[in-house]
Amino acid sequence: MATRDSILEAARAEFALRGLAGARVDEIAARAGANKRMLYAYFGSKEALWLTVLEGAYAAKRAEERALDVAALPPAEAMAQLVRFNLRYTAAHPEFVALLNQENLHQAEYLRHSERVPALYSPLLDTLRAVLARGEAGGDFRQGVDPLQLYVTIVALGHFYIANLHTLSTVFGAGLGEPAALAARERHCIEVVLGYLRA
Any idea where the HTH tetR-type domain is (predicted)? Predict the structure, then answer.
């Protein structure tokens, strides 16, 4: 019998492929080896299932990000790790990009009902603030950097590249998803962020 987790896994794949509007509950249930009645018993509605999938996607990323333990690293290396992680995670999880792009098309209509996701990111900003403070104290980082703006920039450097990988590769006639291209992008992003932070 299908479990809640198997339904979530099937829903993640279907939503990433077709979005909220295009996904069909019948197809999600079939992928999970469940029936619609079981799906509705667990989640109540397709929209509630969408939000649960979205929250799970954010939580999975934050769990891996926390595991970096940047507090134990020198400030510059901590920042490099955050930049590296965000690019690599996005490249490894195209479903995360697809889900976020879809929710943005809905203008965060569903995400704004989540208490879970904002709570995940408050500790992240505290961690980033602590790394910035260590970097300032050691004379490595400039003063007055806004941790929210910095994090948005770090995420954007990776997310835009991966979200537009196919079009950028076509426009520039380059395989930007190839390992060497990703490594070059990673180096560039780290240089951009550390160059901005340099005292």
Answer: 1-61
Report pTM: 0.91
CA distance 139 to 137: 5
Spatial contact of 143 and 132, defined as CB atoms under 8 Å apart: no
pLDDT in tens, 94-137: 999 999 999 999 999 999 999 999 999 888 999 999 999 999 99
d(CA 192, CA 157): 9
Instruction: Report the C-alpha gap between 46 and 178 in whole angstroms.
Output: 36
**DSSP single-letter state for residue 143:** S
Cα dist from 168 to 97, 119, 172, whole Å: 16, 34, 6
φ, ψ for residue 141 (rounded to 5)? -115, 150
Angle at 190 between CA 186 and CA 195, to 5 degrees: 150
Residue 142, SS3? coil
Q: What is the DSSP letter of 173?
A: T
- Structural domains of the chain ordered from first start: 1-44 (1.10.10.60), 53-197 (1.10.357.10)
Instruction: Please report which residue ranges of the chain form alpha helices under DSSP H.
Output: 4-22, 25-32, 36-43, 46-66, 75-92, 94-105, 116-137, 147-163, 165-172, 179-197
Contacts of 46 (CB under 8 A, 6+ apart): 20, 23, 25
